[in-house]
Q: What sequence folds into this?
């Protein structure tokens, strides 16, 4: 762990590119995801935290893995997008709440021309989401739910009471359909917040433009999933863009090779 000389607060170190010591507050400050490119109508960023041995959670949740820099990175990313998409498994396990954010983040988003808070879109085939989950707790911040038309009618009726429901006529909702629906609603800056099975589908469709990964200095073992999980291998190679370190956490940023000509955003 690195410490600044006169406080006991870990420094934020940029290891690549251009090594430098930074204030923690500088971490991804002012980040706004691109609203697509000339070739594609949307941009998808992925954010995840993992243990050294690849575990996606401790005791079923990701919250215990990363330190303060990881939490700040997630907040910055939720300050950078139009919408966050998340799989139903994550909403259930992590007990997601609305993405309202604090006053400072809301004001910062508005300064950059974004809505005060990002929308949330939950992806589910079954539609089985408890209406008492915290994510449905604020009527002013109703999440969208993209649900398969094969879901039980009762589940759809329950969801309609607490969410903006988009019924999609596909058993497993294709990532292209998810992105097209977001774009049709005007949401071009998309942050994928996991979990592993939604990530697998997004990666298989080659829709991840950028990945923000925190590697926490802890090994977990046990049955936890990896950050991308499915039945078939879906190898994708990404370019390393930056490496930051804070309190032993490594904050890694990668980008799809199709964006090599892009100047930093
Ligand atoms: N470390 C991290 O950064 C991080 C981030 C997120 C989650 N996690 C962890 O990941 C674990 C959950 O893993 P998971 O793989 O179950 O997460 P997940 O991908 O969020 O959830 C899987 C469920 O989401 C729905 N889903 C995903 N893709 C779909 C698609 N293309 N079409 C229709 N429905 C789709 C299905 O819901 P239905 O079953 O309702 O049909 C599926 O069963 C939790 O322990 C959580 O803590 C960790």
A:
């Amino acid at each position: 762990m690195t410490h600044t000389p006169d406080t006991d607060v870990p420094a934020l170190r940029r290891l690549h590119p251009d090594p430098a010591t930074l204030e923690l507050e500088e971490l991804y400050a002012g980040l706004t995801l691109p609203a697509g490119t000339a070739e594609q109508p949307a941009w998808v960023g992925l954010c995840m935290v993992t243990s050294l041995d690849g575990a996606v959670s401790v005791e079923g949740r990701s919250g215990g893995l990363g330190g303060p820099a990881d939490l700040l990175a997630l907040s910055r990313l939720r300050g950078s997008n139009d919408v966050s998409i998340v799989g139903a498994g994550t909403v259930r396990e992590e007990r997601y709440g609305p993405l309202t954010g604090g006053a400072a983040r809301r004001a910062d988003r508005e300064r950059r021309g974004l809505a005060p808070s990002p929308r949330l879109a939950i992806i589910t085939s079954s539609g089985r989401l408890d209406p008492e989950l915290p994510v449905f707790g604020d009527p002013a911040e109703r999440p969208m739910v993209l649900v398969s038309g094969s879901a039980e009618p009762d589940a759809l009726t329950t969801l309609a009471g607490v969410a903006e429901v988009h019924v999609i006529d596909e058993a497993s909702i294709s990532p292209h359909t998810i992105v097209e629906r977001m774009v049709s609603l005007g949401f071009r800056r998309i942050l994928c917040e996991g979990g592993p099975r939604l990530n697998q589908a997004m990666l298989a469709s080659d829709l991840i433009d950028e990945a923000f990964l925190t590697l926490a200095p802890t090994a977990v073992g046990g049955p936890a999933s990896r950050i991308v999980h499915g039945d078939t291998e879906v190898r994708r190679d990404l370019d390393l863009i930056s490496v930051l370190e804070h309190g032993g956490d490594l904050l890694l940023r990668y980008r799809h090779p199709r964006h090599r000509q892009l100047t930093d955003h």
User: Anything to note?
Assistant: Helices lie at 68-77, 88-94, 103-111, 153-160, 175-184, 196-204. The domain at 31-259 is CATH 3.40.430.10 (Dihydrofolate Reductase, subunit A). The first helix runs from residue 68 to 77.
